[in-house]
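seq as requested:
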Amino acid sequence: MTLLLIATGAAVGAPARFLTDLVVAHYAGRFLPWGTLVVNVFGSGLAVFLVVAVADPGWSALLVTGFCGALTTYSTLSYETLRLVEDGRWHHALWNVAANLAGGLGAGLLGFGLAHLIAG
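struct tokens:
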């Protein structure tokens, strides 16, 4: 049952990542991988919030492991960063990694604090 919950969450999270990237790229352009940054930061904050706020293992499997796991993307971050390096854009590659890490950690801390405020 847990595997089905994870797969269901991932079936929603992966298209959400793809669509978010399309929308963000439409407005911000593709000079930098803004869509990946948005999903990684948002997904990190949401995942930590849910880990703290949701006690049920089934809901955690569906939302945290499935949805947030498919929404966030370390593989795309790696690929896009390597593409920036290949293009000779080292400073953009370093900024991309730093922004994803700092943004994800910051969002995680925010999600942690928000969950504790709401859940008590």
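DSSP finds five helices and no strands in the chain.
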